[in-house]
Write a structure and sequence with these properties.
Layout lengths: L2 E5 L4 E5 L6 E2 L16 E2 L9 E2 L30 E3 L2 E3 L9 E9 L20 E3 L7 E7 L5 E8 L7 E6 H7 L7 E8 L38 E8 L2 H12 L6 E4 L7 E5 L5 H13 L6 E4 L1
Parallel strand pairs: 8-12, 9-11
Antiparallel strand pairs: 1-2, 2-5, 3-4, 6-7, 8-13, 9-12, 10-11, 10-13, 14-16, 14-17, 15-16
C-alpha cells in the first residue's frame, strides 16, 4: 500500500494511490484428505481511492518502540505470490535477496490502514517497525537509512507496496518518525537487506525522546516487528467426510499444542473441519505449522472464522 503525502503547515494529509494496497492470503477448504490454498487477493477496493490517509489523532512519541530484530523465519505462500499484478503492472518476488541494496524515495502509511491485514495476514500497526516493499520476500529485514540526515532504523517487511511511481519502500508511521521525515512525507533513503546471523548495529535500539517534547507515548505493539494476527485466525488441519477421522486428527493435535482444537460440524458440503485456534501471534502459527509437518500431518492452511 502506498500514499502520496501532501503536507501543509497546519496538518498533513495523504492521498492513497492504490486499491488499498494490502494483499492477504485467503485460504479455502477444498479436498477431503487435505487442503489447497487459493492465491493472494487484494483486500482493498477502488472506493478506497478518495479516502485520505492521516497521522494519529495527535503527534505521538515513538522513541520507546524498539527496532525490529532480524530472526530466522520460515517463508510461506502468504504474501509471496509471484508474479502479481497491481494497477496493470506485473511484479516478481525475489528468489534470493541476500546482499540486496536499493536507493530511492521512501514514504509512509498510517491511520487509514491501521488495523487492516498486511500481505501475509498480520495486522498492520502504524506504531510498529514494519514496512511494505514490492519485491522483497515476506518476511525480510532491512536497514533503512535516511540519506538526508543519516538516521537509521531496522524494520521487518510484511506488506506489499508502495505502488506510487518512484517510491521504493513504505514505512510505518513509527519508522518514518524515527527517520525524521514523517512531517515531510517522503525522503531519499537507502535500504539494505539484513541476514539474521549478521551483526546489526543498533538492531534493537530505542531512541531518546526529544527533550521537552511533551508528546504522549505511542501505544507500543506487543512485538514491534509485527506478528499480530486478526482475532478470528484459525489453522485448519484437515477436512473429512467422516466424523471419526476428524476426531482422530483432533486427538492427535491436542498432544501437539495447548491451543483449542475443535471439530466444526458440516454446513452444506458435509465436511467435518478440524481447526486450531484462535491464534493471535504469527510466530505461534508458524511454529505449529512446523510441528505438524514434523509429525507428517496434512498440510494446514489459515482460515478466518
Amino acid at each position: 500500500m502506498t500514499c502520496r503525502t501532501d503536507m501543509t503547515p497546519a496538518a498533513a494529509r495523504s492521498t492513497c494511490t492504490t486499491n488499498g494496497g494490502a494483499w492477504l492470503a485467503l485460504m479455502l477448504v477444498l479436498t477431503l484428505a487435505g487442503c489447497v490454498s487459493q492465491p493472494d487477493v487484494p483486500e482493498g477496493t477502488p472506493h478506497d481511492f478518495h479516502i485520505k490517509d492521516s497521522y494519529p489523532e495527535q503527534p505521538m512519541d515513538v522513541s520507546h518502540i524498539p527496532d525490529a530484530v532480524p530472526r530466522v523465519e520460515p517463508r510461506t505462500r502468504a504474501g509471496n505470490k509471484s508474479p502479481y499484478v497491481v494497477l496493470g503492472k506485473t511484479y516478481y518476488v525475489m528468489q534470493d535477496e541476500r546482499g540486496f541494496t536499493e536507493e530511492g524515495i521512501g514514504s509512509w502509511y498510517g491511520n487509514k490502514f491501521h488495523g487492516r491485514r498486511t500481505s501475509n495476514g498480520e495486522v498492520y500497526s502504524m506504531y510498529g517497525m514494519t514496512a511494505a516493499h514490492k519485491t522483497l520476500p515476506i518476511p525480510s529485514y532491512v536497514r533503512v537509512t535516511n540519506l538526508e540526515n543519516g538516521r537509521q532504523i531496522v524494520v521487518r517487511v510484511n506488506d506489499r507496496g508502495p505502488f506510487h511511481t518512484g517510491r521504493i519502500i513504505d514505512l510505518s508511521y513509527a519508522g518514518a518518525s524515527k527517520l525524521g521525515y514523517v512531517n515531510k512525507g517522503t525522503a531519499r533513503v537507502r535500504i539494505e537487506v539484513l541476514e539474521p546471523q549478521s551483526p546489526q548495529p543498533g538492531g534493537a535500539r530505542t531512541y531518546a525522546a526529544a527533550a521537552g517534547s511533551g508528546l504522549p507515548p505511542a501505544p507500543a505493539p506487543a512485538n514491534s516487528a509485527g506478528f499480530e494476527l486478526p482475532p478470528n485466525t484459525f489453522l485448519q488441519a484437515g477436512a473429512f467426510s467422516s466424523i471419526k477421522a476428524a476426531e482422530q486428527l483432533r486427538q492427535r493435535l491436542t498432544h501437539l499444542t495447548d491451543l483449542p482444537v475443535q471439530v466444526i460440524v458440516p454446513q452444506s458440503d458435509q465436511l467435518y473441519r478440524v481447526r486450531v485456534g484462535p491464534i493471535a501471534d504469527n510466530l505461534v502459527l508458524l511454529d505449529l505449522r512446523e510441528r505438524l509437518q514434523q509429525n507428517r500431518l496434512p498440510s494446514p492452511h489459515v482460515v478466518y472464522d
